Amino acid sequence: MALGDAVLFRQRSMEGMAGGQLGAQLSLSSVPHNMDELVQRTRVHADEAEEPAPQQDGETVAYLPPNLYLCDLRHDAGETSTSLGPAESGLVSKWRMKDRMKTGCVALVLCLNIGVDPPDVIKISPCARMECWIDPSSMLPLKAIDAIGKNLQVQYERWQPRARYRVQLDPTVEEVKKICTTSRKSAKNERVLFHYNGHGVPRPTVNGEIWLFNKSYTQYIPLSVYELESWLGTPSIYVFDCSAAGMIVNAFCDRPDYGGGNPSPHPAPAMKDCILLAACGAHEILPQNAELPADVFTSCLTTPIKIALRWFCPRSLLKDTLDPDLIDRIPGRQNDRKTPLGELNWIFTAITDTIAWNVLPRDLFQRLFRQDLLVASLFRNFLLAERIMRAANCSPQSYPALPPTHQHPMWHAWDMAAEICLSQLPALLSDSNLEFQPSPFFTEQLTAFEVWLEHGSSRKNPPEQLPIVLQVLLSQSHRFRALVLLGRFLDMGAWAVDLALSVGIFPYVLKLLQTTATELRQILVFIWTKILALDKSCQVDLVKDGGHQYFIKFLDSDDVCAEQRAMAAFVLAVIADGHPRGQSACIQAGLINICLVHIQTVPGAESQPEPLLLQWLCLCLGKLWDGAPEGQAAYRDNARTTLTSLLSELNPEVRASATYALGTLVKAHSESTIPTETSSVEDEEDEEALTSEREIARSLLKVINDGSPLVRTELAIALARLAIAHNRLFRAAASAYLKPPSSMLSPTFAASRNASYGYTQQLAFAGSSMMDQSAGLRVGLEGTTPPRPLRPVMSSGSLPSSGNLHGSPSELGYTEEARSLGNGPASNGVSRSWRLRGEESGIYVQCVAAVYALARDPSPRVASIGRQILRSVGVEVVVKPVRTNSGPGHTRNASVPALPPTPLPSGLVRSTSWVASTSGNLASTFRTPPPSPPSRPNFLTSPMGIRRVSSMEQFSSTASTPRDMGRIPIRISGEIGIATTSPVPRSVSATGLADGSGVPVGPASLSMESTVPTSTLYSWSCGHFSRPLLEPTHEDEDEVLARREERERVALDGMSKCQHSSVSKVSDPISSWVTLSEMGTKAVLLHPFSPLVCCADEKETIRIYNYEEEQLVNTFDNHNAPDKGVSKLCLLNELDDSLLLVASSDGSVRVWKDYTQKDNQRLATAFQTIQGHKPGSRGISAVVDWQQYTGLLYASGEISSITVWNLDTELCFATIPSQSDSCTSAMSASQVHTGQLATGCGDGFVRVYDIRTRGMLVCAMKAHSNRVMGIDFQPGMDLTKMVSASQSGDIKFLDIRNNASPYLSIDAHKGHLTSLAVHRHAPVIASGSSKSFIKVFSTSGEQLSMVRYHNSFLGHRIGPVSCLHFHPYSVLLAAGATDSIVSIYAGEMHSR
């Protein structure tokens, strides 16, 4: 990763992800014509960012490496397993209206009484007369009211043509009751609209009564709206077009059962289902302006374009030239957007939607403008009514109440659009061949939206034009640009997707999947990617409408780049995620075969996006066949071969995804696949499935030593599925693998153990009735003669090798007597034995060994899953703390037990090393517990404290009470206890004994599917698509670059001073810190750019101390496993946000982020660098070193090789044979030249390696007669000179060009040398002794200073020195001692 990418490290969630951006920023002046152009712009931009910053000289290149490591998103997540996948419910899913409704019936009640004015109304002259655009005085009253009623129905049918309409003209109370009850009966649970025109009756009363007529029309009869509501029921909507209509709204709101007088902000449920629209306020009368119709409110609600133009025309610049009567002759139809009338209606809908969306709360907007089509249309038109009627001093009312909108700026845009249309009207009417010129409204609004995208963010107000963009999608001419801008908006984050969904984008983009336009494919896939990244619930809609076919065709297209295919694969994975119908639809469409073909054809070129595609093809496959038998059965073998090839990919996410996909091929269910006597037809299918799953397991074991916890977690989950599906076979394998040899209790074996090992681990094997009785494993036998202990094969390896497991059964640890098949009574209805060949049973032993290794993984999550698997096969891990020799009475509990060594990559070799940890031997107990505990525990105790349960060889036949039958005994601190809940369900046979297999039998058995650990890989991977992809934003970009530049300046200044100055002494103490550690200090490290010192003690407690402010910054435990011991501390990415690497003595490495933040440190990664150790050694005693420039981590110890790990790919890069019979005791990687490594061995040899050469070994020399305690390259650019020191106290200056003898020797100490430190740039070295001395020498051999006493009043002697470290850019020396005091000494420099 280049220096220019330092600000992009948080975007590197996978290899090549930074290069997989889909689009670049669109300028205001031009829009790309297709998505390819959009991608090309981004790639150019990304290439510019990839250019490395120019370096000053070769030395700067070496000492200021530009690379960053372990800064990908998978390392940010750490061990938290944070789920970033699509939400099934929550914030984003609120956009979906769960109670979408429609208006089924419309009741129109008109009380006009034409010719008779109501007594409380005084009309002006001239006054408004028009009702539904009909002048009542132009015809007879009866004909007029009938025509008005029919016209009103036609006006409503424009908005809801499928509703059932009923009209009552000048009705009585009984007629209104009838129309209301009939409407409710017809509508059932749908909404009913009640329209009341009261222009011919008095105003409503204060009590909320409207007026009707008696049969003879001689009296006005009041009708309470409460009674009206009881007839109509809910849900309903009321339109009251009469003077003082606000009285009715007030009466509704004041009703007690509607929440009247209740201060609660939550209205009653009945009131929530009622919507009211009133023409004016409680004390207002309707406008009588002759320019407007009498029912201006109704006209606004039902004929908005006509009334809007008639109202606007006298107020526009065209008032003197345009005849208002021409408005009725506007050509076109309202549903044809290419005509003038259709475009005006389209613009009006966009503007009113925009006004409502910008002024209303989101939930209210959803209810009024998205729940019901008729209600949405009425409320859009209500906004127009407010504008027009407020100009006439009337204030329309509504419930729910809306904020004022009559002065919203968008009305000016409507006026302009109307004026442009009206200006063309005379010419259009006079010449039918004249083409209508569309309004620039939508183009201008898209430009305004684009301007907002240039400067907007989540902290600013949302774009006003979003509803308009929605409307633009209906137009082919603007569709592509609108989709590109919409995609850019969705790319801004989850809040943007939420806004777009709440405004109603979903049905539009769902409908667009039916289009065949090729230019829209890429941007549509991108938009759906952003939607599904936040809301998984859309999968149902996609499958229902056949939308999955669109993405399958896109994925299989030839002209699609890799990152766009990855998006399509992601969409299809979400469709199949936990959705059986989606799985079935995709499988039937051939998606599995398409994914497998693309995995095989993805080129291994240098282009970056391909890992992302491979990752999502694997995840898509996993989601397709997880729980889908048709997918697993049809493609198991072909898929296994294809996916196995990805397990060696350089990208960890690809390896993890392939492991996940392989794991989901295993059916995670109880062992229903084991053949029985009644399964005759299905036997072959079951046997084939089991064979295939065993091959899957064999493939999965290839990643047992992967450096990425992401991969090992998926491996552990896959093995957990296998352990559940093959539980009995796993139990038999566990019994075979974990059964201790009889020689365990011999004095010879006891004498070989490490008596100082401080923790006794006890592994209790629960239910071991399945033992090897033939050439393989025999399942389900009880009542037979107790089997003999299984004899392990002695080997120096840690696990059985795959090669050996294909051989004879004795190589698997089975006796020759087990070759003959034993016959015995079967349990659980199994009347015949079921045999496995040696190589078949061997895979289960390999799996158990792998699980055993995973249970002691450095990653807490991996270890937790490993222990869970052990429990599922009957192995209980109980850690018993015992007294250590670190101090009197000191004990320490550990939640992570120490387990046998991690298996070697080459295979699995059964050996006695199952009792040896990497840093000491284990005292282990394996037992088969009885169904209920005995009254007194009976142990066979070895001289070294190894204890075995007397019932280890066979089950106890002691009957147990029903209360205790389902419990598994576990050992806690030497006592037998009963577990209240069993991790492994047990069954009871007819004899009352617990079923030894531990597999649930019968209907009362517990389901085992729930025990499968949950994988977070898929949901975490989804988080990539929820982040910005088109225009990655980095709010801290300037800060990161400024910090990097400042640190480079400080480093260069420090390097110059160190290289051009001579050091006279290094003995001035500037700080001392008592760590209060009981174990002293094992490793110390000075931060290069902050006054911080990091130290670690033998218990692996990490402490960060500010030596200028003299305060503790942070403290935390590296891990809580019983094996303790620190080998080294290193800093990764020291010029940026540095990471703290802590190497343990057992070969495990843990890298911490935010280690300087109090209690906020996070584990970025953890893995085991070394597997196994030499026979006879007590532990690994690992030594490691880090090389920043290459990203390589070197590790060795009590092994015969040096492992080289690439922390970019998190794979073992190489294995260098140490070519020595002795252990590697010291190591140093060159920080100047790539690939250079120097090691010191226990026999005094010094070797130099170059990993770039074929032989790797450059030279070897016998520099010392004793163990090498420290080695390093001399300061400067000369890689041929080194410094080494041995335990006997001599320091040798070596030159590999003359490896016959050192060119300079110093007898620094008379024995007991413990540590050596060489400054990175200054010509100074320091050595420490257990005799409480620190000596500082120049590179010419001159002793500069010596430290023996603390700088205190009493001048106490310093403690035995255990570790030393120089500051890289200043002459500061940190020293740690066994007395738990860390001291820092400064040096004096003089220019030379």
Task: List the keywords.
alpha+beta, six-stranded mixed sheet, four-stranded antiparallel sheet, disordered N terminus
Description:
This protein is of the alpha+beta class. 31% of the residues lie in helices and 18% in strands. It is built from 36 helices and 43 strands. A six-stranded mixed beta sheet has the order 2-1-3-6-7-8, sandwiched between helices. Strands 16-43-42-41 form a four-stranded antiparallel beta sheet. A four-stranded antiparallel beta sheet has the order 17-18-19-20, with no helix packed on it. A hairpin with a 3-residue loop joins β30 and β31. α25 (591-601) packs parallel to α27 (629-644). The protein is elongated and about 130 Å long. The two termini are 38 Å apart. Mean pLDDT is 77; it is low at 1-62, 259-269, 605-609, 671-681, 742-834 and 880-1010. Residues 100-253 form the Raptor N-terminal CASPase-like domain. Belongs to the WD repeat RAPTOR family. Pfam families: Raptor_N, WD40.
